[in-house]
Design a protein that fits this description.
The complex is a heterodimer. By secondary structure, chain A is an alpha/beta fold. Chain A contains 21 helices and 20 strands. In chain A, a hairpin with a 2-residue loop joins strand 19 and strand 20. Chain B has a 4-stranded mixed beta sheet with strand order 1-7-6-5, covered by helices on one side. The chains are: A alpha/beta, B alpha+beta.
Chain lengths: ~775, ~180
C-alpha cells in the first residue's frame, strides 16, 4: 500500500458506510480543493478496480457519553464519487496558474473532472497517477506491492519537522539543518592544511600573549616596580626597556609568521574551493543548468569560495583568539580590582543591544542600496546591449530619463546609508568609551583615596586592558552575521557537491570502440518538466550508414530526439538503442567518441579558430584541420581573415557571423570523424547557395556514416534514406521523400508544397 | 503567391467571438462552447481560456483555445456575451487565474537560502509556504503590488505593499 497521505479514521468510516471497499485500499492521496475549486479536504483512495473520491471537512462534536464527555472527530460530508478504474484512462494533472486539476477520460473519450488542488498537492498527485496507472496496467497485484525508494513519501519529508524537502534529490531540511554539522563537514575539507592552521593558531596565541604582557610592563610594572623607590626593580630601566623591546620583537615575529601563513594558505584554500565547486558543477547533467542563471553560478563559484575562506581562515582563528584574550583579560581585571572591573564592563551588554538595533536598520539600507544598484546595472546592460534598437526607434531621450530616475534612486540610497554609517558606529563607540570613563573616574577616585591599595600604575594597566577588551567587541558583533553568510555559502557548496547527476555512466558499461552506427527508438517517452510530454511513444530505426531526416514544426520535439541520442537527457520510458545496445548501458567514451552533433546554437570558446576546430580532436594535424574546414565550407572565409586559422574569436575578439560560426562548428564535428553525425539545423543560418555547397561536401563525407539531419528547409532532406515527421512529440509520418509526397493530405506533402511555393515566389528554384 | 497572402491574412486575422457567433455552457464540469463555422454550428466539449493581458485586463482579450491547442477566437470583452455565458467565462477565468492574496505576514524566517513564510490570506486562512532564492522569486507588480512564487509553484499576491500592516511591511521590506 502506498499511503501518500494518511486518511483520517472518520473518513474511512464514512467511506465504509457508503459501501467503499476500505479493507483493500492500495493507494491514498489528500488534495486541498474539490471539483468546484472550493477549499476543503478531498481524499482519493484506489483499490485494484475502483477509485473513490470523498470531500468535506473534519469537525469536532461533544461526546454523547455523559460519564466520559470529551470531543469526537466527525466527517462533515461534502460529496462522494466512485469510479471504476477500467472506465477511466489518460489521467492528467492540468496546470492552472496557482493550482491544478486532476482529470481523466472515460470510455467515450469524454473528460471527467476528478478534483482540483493548489500546487501544494501537485507533486503528490503526480505520484498518485503514476501508481494508479500501474494498478490499471496490472503491474500491481496486491496491497503489499513495493514502492520505488524515491517514491516513498517518508523519504521525501524531514523526519524532524515533517516538512517536504525543498530539493527531493538532496534530502536535507534547511529548517532543521545544524550549522555545526555543516562546519564540521567543512573542517574535514580543511584537514590537509592542519599543519598550517596549527602554526597560524600558535602564532596568534603568541601575538595575543605578547599584547597582554606589553601594557603590564610598559605601565603598571614600570611605574610601581621600577620608578617607585619602594619597587622591587627600582632604577632597573635597562631591564624594563629590554623586556618591552623583547616583547615587541616577539609580537612582530608572531605577526610576520601569521601573515606569511595566511597569505600562503588563503590562495590555496580559495583555489581548492573554486576547483571543487567548478568540478562539481561540470559533473552535473544538463538538466541542472536549465533551472539556473549562468550569472548566479558564476557568482557562486567566485563569491562563495571567498566567503567560506574568509570565515574559516580569518574569522574563526581570530574569533578563538579574541575569546581567549577577552576571558584572560576579564580574569586579570577582576583579580586587579573586582569592583572597578564590574562597573567598567557594564557597558558591554548595552553596546550589544544598541548595535543589534543599528544593525537591523543598516541591513535595510544595505538591501535598498543593493537592490537599487542592481536595477541600475540591469538597466544599463539592457540599454547598452539594445543600443541598435534604441537608436532605430530614436528613444535616446526616454532612455536618458529612465537612467536618470534609476541613478537618482541609487544616489539617494547611497547617501542615506553613508549618513547612517557616519553616526551609528561613532554612537555605539561612545557607549563603549563610557566604560573607559567609568574606569578612569572611579579608578582615579580609588587611587586618590587609597581604596584597596589601588596604585597609579595599576590604574594605567587597568585602563589599557579595558581598551583591549573593547576592540574585539565590534568583531564579535559581526561574527553572527558572518557565520550566517558563510553557512549559506557552505550550504550552497554542499548542495552542488551532493547533487547527483541525472545522467550517470553505468558500472561495467559496454565499450563500443568501433560502432556500426544503427540507431533505434523504441516507444520513447520524454518530458523536460513533469506532466508535459515532449516525446510521446516515438519509435523509428535508422540503419547504419543511412541518412534519416527529421521534419516538424518549431517545438515539435526534433532537437529533443538528438539530445536523447547523445544522452544529454535520459528518456522517461522506452529505449534508445545504438547498435542494439541501450544508450544507458554504453560507456560515455563510446558514446562521445562515435557521435558528433552540430546544432543551431553553436558555441565557440575564447581562443583561435584552430583551437576551436581542434577541440574535438586535439591531436589532429594541420592538414586534417584544413580538410575538415574545406568540407564545412569554412576554409575560404578563414583564409580571408588576416590571421587565418590563428584568428582569435570568442568574447572580446573578432566576431564571426552566424553562418561562419556554424561552418566552424561543422568543421569541428567533421574532424572528429564520427560514426553517427547529427546535424540539428546545422545549416539554418546560411544562404541557400552556401547551404547547397556544404550539403554536397557533407554528402561526400557522410557516405557510409549514419547521419541524422534535422531541418526546417525540407529540400535539404530530399536525399535522406528515410524521413520521419514529428508532430506534437509523435511520429506522424514515416517514409522516403517520394513516399511521403505521394500521400494525399499528408503533413509532409503540405509543408513541402508550401515551402517550394514560397521559394519559387522568392525567385529560387531548387 | 495569392494563396500565401490569403494564408497570411487568415493567420493574422483576429477572430472575434461574441454572442452572435458563439455561446458557452458547462459539460461534465468543464467549460464547453458552441460556435458558428460559416453556416454550420459546431460544439467543442472543452475549451481553455487564456488572458492576453492578465495583469491589466482581467475580462478583456481572452483567447479561447480548443483541446488540440488551436485558438478558436478571441473574446474582446466578456460583456459581448449573455449574462449567463459571461458568468461562466468569469468563473472559469477566476478559477484558472486564482492566486491567494496575502493580508498579513505573521512570520518570516530565512535559513540557508530558503525563506519560511507564515501568512494570513484575505479569505482568513493561515498558510505556510517556503520560498527559495527569495529575492528572485518576488516579482514586483507595478509600483505597489508583488507576486511571491513558492517552491511548489504557488503564487501569492500582495496587492499593495504599502497598505500591509507595519509588522508585515517590516518583514517583507528587506526583500523589495
Amino acid at each position: 500500500m502506498l499511503e501518500i497521505d494518511k486518511i483520517p479514521a472518520c473518513v474511512l468510516d464514512y467511506a465504509y458506510g457508503k459501501g467503499a471497499d476500505v479493507e483493500n485500499i492500495y493507494l491514498t492521496l489528500h488534495c486541498d480543493m474539490n471539483s468546484e475549486h472550493t477549499y476543503c479536504d478531498t481524499y482519493l483512495m484506489a483499490t485494484s478496480d475502483t477509485l473513490y473520491i470523498i470531500w468535506g471537512s473534519e469537525g469536532l462534536v461533544s461526546r454523547q457519553n455523559p460519564v466520559k464527555g470529551g470531543l469526537d472527530v466527525i466527517w462533515n460530508e461534502g460529496g462522494y464519487g466512485e469510479y471504476k478504474l477500467s472506465s477511466l484512462k489518460d489521467f492528467k494533472v492540468e496546470e492552472l496558474l496557482s493550482g491544478a486539476r486532476l482529470t481523466a477520460k472515460d470510455e467515450n473519450d469524454e473528460y471527467v473532472f476528478l478534483t482540483a488542488m493548489t500546487n501544494f498537492c501537485k507533486s503528490s498527485t503526480l505520484l498518485f497517477i503514476k501508481y494508479l496507472n500501474k494498478i490499471k496496467k496490472g503491474e500491481i497485484k496486491d496491497k503489499s506491492f513495493t514502492v520505488e525508494p524515491e517514491d516513498d513519501p517518508k523519504s521525501q519529508r524531514c523526519p524532524k519537522c515533517g516538512m517536504r524537502y525543498p530539493n527531493k534529490h538532496r534530502k536535507i531540511c534547511p529548517k532543521c539543518m545544524e550549522k555545526g554539522k555543516l562546519f564540521a563537514r567543512f573542517g574535514v575539507f580543511l584537514g590537509k592544511y592542519k599543519l598550517y592552521i596549527f602554526i597560524m593558531l600558535a602564532s596568534l596565541v603568541l601575538l595575543s600573549a605578547t599584547s597582554i604582557l606589553a601594557p603590564y610592563f610598559s605601565s603598571g610594572f614600570f611605574y610601581d616596580q621600577v620608578l617607585d623607590v619602594d619597587g622591587t626593580f627600582y632604577g632597573e630601566l635597562l631591564l624594563v626597556i629590554a623586556i618591552v623591546v623583547g616583547t615587541k620583537i616577539l609580537s612582530q615575529i608572531a605577526n610576520i609568521i601569521n601573515g606569511y601563513i595566511t597569505s600562503k594558505i588563503s590562495a590555496r584554500v580559495v583555489y581548492d574551493l573554486k576547483m571543487t565547486i567548478f568540478g562539481a558543477i561540470e559533473r552535473l547533467s544538463l538538466g541542472f543548468f536549465n533551472g539556473r542563471q549562468t550569472g548566479g553560478l558564476m557568482t557562486q563559484v567566485n563569491n562563495d569560495a571567498n566567503t567560506i575562506y574568509g570565515f574559516f581562515c580569518d574569522g574563526i582563528p581570530y574569533f578563538l583568539i579574541n575569546i581567549v584574550q577577552v576571558v584572560a583579560l576579564c580574569i586579570i581585571l577582576f583579580i586587579m580590582n573586582p569592583v572597578l572591573a564590574a562597573l567598567s564592563l557594564l557597558t558591554i551588554p548595552v553596546f550589544f543591544i544598541v548595535l543589534r538595533k543599528f544593525y537591523r536598520t543598516s541591513m535595510k539600507y544595505h538591501a535598498r542600496n543593493y537592490s537599487s544598484q542592481r536595477s541600475m546595472n540591469g538597466l544599463l546592460s539592457d540599454v547598452l546591449s539594445g543600443m541598435r534598437v534604441v537608436k532605430a526607434f530614436s528613444k535616446e531621450e526616454e532612455e536618458i530619463t529612465r537612467f536618470d530616475k534609476s541613478s537618482t534612486r541609487v544616489a539617494k540610497n547611497n547617501k542615506k546609508l553613508a549618513v547612517f554609517n557616519n553616526y551609528s558606529y561613532p554612537l555605539s563607540g561612545i557607549i563603549l568609551y563610557l566604560g573607559n570613563i567609568i574606569a578612569l573616574g572611579v579608578g582615579g577616585w580609588m587611587v586618590i583615596k587609597g581604596y584597596g591599595d589601588f596604585t597609579y600604575g595599576q590604574l594605567l594597566t587597568f585602563t589599557a586592558y579595558i581598551n583591549m577588551i573593547y576592540s574585539p567587541m565590534y568583531f564579535f558583533s559581526q561574527m553572527v552575521d558572518w557565520s550566517a553568510s558563510s553557512s549559506n555559502a557552505l550550504q550552497r557548496l554542499f548542495e552542488i557537491l551532493d547533487t547527483k547527476p541525472d545522467i550517470t555512466e553505468k558500472e561495467n558499461a559496454v565499450e563500443l570502440s568501433q560502432m556500426e552506427g544503427s540507431v533505434e527508438f523504441k516507444d520513447v517517452d520524454f518530458s523536460y518538466t513533469k506532466n508535459r510530454k515532449i516525446i510521446d511513444r516515438v519509435s523509428f530505426k535508422v540503419d547504419s550508414g543511412s541518412i534519416l531526416g527529421i521534419v516538424g514544426h518549431t517545438g515539435a520535439g526534433k532537437s529533443t530526439i538528438a539530445n536523447l541520442i547523445i544522452r544529454l537527457y535520459d528518456c522517461d520510458d522506452g529505449e534508445v538503442l545504438i547498435d542494439g545496445v541501450n544508450v544507458k548501458d554504453l560507456s560515455f567514451a563510446s558514446l562521445y567518441n562515435n557521435i558528433a552533433i552540430v546544432s543551431q546554437e553553436t558555441y565557440l570558446f575564447i581562443g583561435t579558430i584552430l583551437e576551436n576546430i581542434k577541440y574535438a580532436k586535439p591531436d589532429a594535424s594541420y592538414e586534417e584541420v584544413i580538410h575538415a574546414s574545406k568540407c564545412a565550407g569554412a576554409h575560404d572565409f578563414i583564409m580571408k581573415l588576416p590571421d587565418g586559422y590563428d584568428t582569435k574569436i570568442g568574447f572580446g575578439f573578432k566576431g564571426l557571423s552566424g553562418g561562419e560560426r556554424q561552418r566552424v562548428s561543422i568543421a569541428r564535428a567533421i574532424l572528429r570523424d564520427p560514426r553517427i553525425l547529427i546535424l540539428d539545423e546545422a545549416t539554418a543560418a546560411m544562404d541557400t547557395e552556401t547551404e547547397k555547397l556544404i550539403q554536397n561536401a557533407l554528402a561526400e563525407l557522410t557516405r557510409g556514416k549514419t547521419t541524422i539531419m534535422i531541418a526546417h528547409r525540407l529540400s535539404t532532406l530530399r536525399d535522406a534514406d528515410k524521413l520521419i515527421v514529428i508532430e506534437r512529440g509523435k511520429v506522424a509520418e514515416e517514409g522516403t521523400h517520394r513516399e511521403l509526397l505521394d500521400k494525399e493530405e499528408g503533413v509532409y506533402k503540405k509543408l513541402y508544397t508550401l515551402q517550394a511555393e514560397a521559394l519559387k515566389n522568392a525567385g529560387i528554384t531548387e | 503567391m495569392v494563396e500565401n497572402e490569403i494564408m497570411l491574412e487568415k493567420s493574422a486575422r483576429i477572430h472575434r467571438l461574441d454572442k452572435s457567433n458563439a455561446d458557452f455552457f458547462m459539460k461534465n464540469g468543464f467549460l464547453a462552447m458552441t460556435y458558428k463555422d460559416g453556416e454550420e454550428e459546431k460544439t467543442l466539449d472543452r475549451v481553455f481560456l487564456h488572458r492576453a493581458f492578465p495583469f491589466e485586463l482581467l475580462w478583456k482579450y481572452i483567447s479561447v483555445i480548443s483541446d488540440d491547442g488551436k485558438e478558436k477566437g478571441v473574446i474582446f470583452d466578456i460583456e459581448d456575451f449573455s449574462e449567463d455565458a459571461a458568468a461562466l467565462i468569469k468563473t472559469e477565468l477566476e478559477r484558472k487565474y486564482y492566486s491567494p492574496t496575502i493580508k498579513s505576514i505573521n512570520s518570516l524566517k530565512e535559513r540557508y537560502g530558503f525563506s519560511y513564510w507564515r501568512v494570513t490570506l484575505t479569505d482568513g486562512r493561515n498558510v505556510n509556504f517556503t520560498m527559495q532564492d527569495t529575492f528572485r522569486n518576488i516579482i514586483r507588480l507595478g509600483d505597489y503590488g508583488a507576486i511571491l512564487l513558492d517552491v511548489d509553484g504557488n503564487r501569492f499576491v500582495i496587492k499593495s505593499i504599502s497598505s500591509l500592516d507595519r509588522k508585515s511591511y517590516r518583514r517583507i521590506e528587506l526583500y523589495l
